[in-house]
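During the second half of the funding period, the structural biology subgroup turned its attention to how the target accommodates small molecules. The most pressing case was protoporphyrin IX containing FE, which had performed well in the primary screen but for which no bound structure existed. We therefore specified the complex as follows and requested a full 3D prediction, including the ligand pose.
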Amino acid sequence: MITTNPFSILAETVPPILMQWFVITMAILVIVGTLVDIIHKKNVKYFFENAKKAKLSATKTLNTTERISVISKTIVSDIATTSELGVGQRRAAHLLGMYGTIIFWIGSVIMIFCYVDPSSNTPSVWPMVWHMGAIMTVLGGSWFWFFLRVDVYSEAQPWYRIIKADLFVLALIASSLFGLIWSFLQSLNLSDRWDDKVFLVFYIVSNLVLFGGVYWSKFAHMFYKPGAAIQKNLAEADGSRDNLPPPADAPEQFGPGIKREEPKHY
Ligand code: HEM
């Protein structure tokens, strides 16, 4: 199963062009969902107005080399390793899910657009990337959802309580999990059995929810967060600090209380 391209088996019954159009439609849904979200929340408008206002209090003008250096450091640290999440389980779970999702999506696109024809020979690296990505996403997403969600971790809510904010993480886990189960059942070659078809339908529906639900879910954070991190670090480097006061010129003395227990009352 792990070295088999599930889409090329599917192509024996479903025209490849249909799969390719499905992927293109999902990409369009992401773009439309994000644009509608931007128009509705006016967050990008606020972001640029705020950045313009902050620039007025800059104490230093950054030259191109300095800007490139700040942006590169942000990409390597804040974005690629999601340093905002600090050290610990939250960051580890996020990295597992984030890189899992990225390689799962890359694997899907490569296999659907380059090797979907049943007569073509898919290099085994791509099905492996796809299956590994799906497993990582399920593990990272479930770790987050079952154990690290703020309302479960800090507010003692039961793990099975589902709210709208869970739409993104649950759709993400569902699409990878159903994809894995579908690929497994299909690899058993049960010909006239219905099981793999049922999971193919679940896989399609969960993708429609994931990509069609961008406006209602946290999907777009993967675009907003990098932008905000770059702006924050540029504002720190040019001294404007987003119009926030500078750090106090005094030692951080908070008493022993702050060290007594892990901060988790958000
Ligand atoms: C493919 C890319 C990404 C995926 C699949 C992904 C996935 C997720 C998921 C599933 C959550 C939990 C959402 C929830 O609260 O229910 C999350 C939260 C978060 N993500 Fe991402 N993410 C991605 C990219 C990024 C990037 C690039 C950044 C930062 C630069 C980022 C920063 C965060 C932060 C700060 C949280 C909040 C974590 C928490 O509440 O503990 N993410 N992400």
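Two results from this model are relevant to the next phase. The pocket of protoporphyrin IX containing FE is lined by residues 78-79, 82, 84-85, 90, 94, 97-98, 101-102, 141, 144, 165-166, 168-169, 172, 218, 221-222, 225-226, 229 (CB under 6 Å). The mean pLDDT is 91.
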